[in-house]
Amino acid sequence: MATYVSNIDKWENLHQKSANKFTRTQPNDTIKKILSLKNKVRTYSDYTRTLEIGCGFGRNLSYLINHKFSSYYSGIDLTKVAIQKSSETLSTAVKNGIVDLKLGNVGHQINYPDNYFDYVFDIMSAITFIVDEKERKQYFSEITRVLKPGGAYFFLAARKEGKFMDAYPDEALLEEGYIRRKIDSMLERVYTSEELATLLSP
Ligand SMILES: C[S@@+](CC[C@H](N)C(=O)[O-])C[C@H]1O[C@@H](n2cnc3c(N)ncnc32)[C@H](O)[C@@H]1O
C-alpha cells in the first residue's frame, strides 16, 4: 500500500485563508440526526459529555449547545485558526465553563481520560482526512478509550461505492480507499461497510 502525504499543511492553509471570510453558522445536516438519536444512547447519569473530533469553526457544537444536547462539550482540531475561531463562535459557552477546545491531532492522541465521553462525533473530519493507516488505527483505538462503555460514536464519511463528481477520476487511488478532491487536491479516505465494521468493532 502506498503512503500519502498528510493533509495537515493543507488544512492550515485552508483555515488561514477562510478565517477572515464568512463563517458558516448552520450545522451540518447530520447534526440534526445526532440530536434525534440522543435518547437511544445509554448514559450513566444526567451529566453527559460530548466530544467533536475536527470541530472546525464550531458551528456543530454551537447547534448542540443551543439545543442542550449535553452537559459539557469538547472540541479538538488540528489548526490553531480553528481553535481560535471556534472559541469566538462558542464564546458564551466557553465563559460559562461548559466547553473545552483543544488543539491536537487525533491520529496521535485524544488528550482526555479513559471512559470520559458519552457521545463522540466526527463529521467528515479525522475519519476522512487521516491518510496514514497507523494513525487511523490509533485514532479508532483512542475513540474506544475515551468513550464510556455503551457510549455512542457518530460519524459521517463517504462510501467507497459512491459516485465522486468532485474528485479526480483515479481508479487505482480508489482501489486503495482514497479519492483526491478537485477543489484543493486534498486526499479523502472512503470506506466499505466491512472495513468500517472491522475498525469500529471494539
Ligand atoms: C471538513 S472540516 C469539518 C469541520 C466541522 N466538523 C464542520 O462540520 O464544520 C474537517 C475538520 O477536521 C479537522 N481535522 C482533520 N484531520 C484532523 C486530525 N487528524 N485531528 C484533528 N482534527 C482534524 C480539520 O482541521 C478541519 O477543521
How helical, in percent, are the residues? 25-40%
> On the 0-100 scale, what is the average pLDDT?
93
Please give the count of helices: 9
The quaternary structure here is single chain
Q: Could you say what the CATH topology of the largest domain is called?
A: Rossmann fold
Biggest sheet: strands, sense, closure? 5 strands, parallel
Radius of gyration: 17 Å
Distance between the termini: 24 Å
Order of strands across the widest beta sheet? 3-2-1-4-5
Proper CATH architecture of the largest domain: 3-Layer(aba) Sandwich
Can you tell me the number of structural domains?
A: 2
CATH superfamily of the largest domain: Vaccinia Virus protein VP39
Main CATH class of the largest domain: Alpha Beta
- By DSSP, the count of extended strands is 8
β-sheet strand percentage: 15-25%
Bound molecules: S-adenosylmethionine
Structural class: alpha/beta
Poorly predicted spans: none
Please explain how this structure is put together.
This protein is of the alpha/beta class. It has two domains: 46-156, Vaccinia Virus protein VP39 (Rossmann fold); 158-202, no CATH class. Helix content is 36%, strand content 21%. It has nine helices and eight strands. The protein has helices spanning 8-18, 30-37, 59-66, 80-89, 91-95, 126-129, 133-146, 171-175, 193-200; strands at 49-53, 72-77, 99-103, 117-123, 147-156, 158-159, 178-180, 187-191. The protein has a five-stranded parallel beta sheet with strand order 3-2-1-4-5. It has a three-stranded mixed beta sheet with strand order 6-8-7. β1, α3 and β2 (72-77) form a beta-alpha-beta unit. The radius of gyration is 17 Å and the shape is globular. It binds S-adenosylmethionine. S-adenosylmethionine is lined by residues 11, 28, 54-56, 59-60, 76-79, 82, 105-107, 123-126, 129-130.
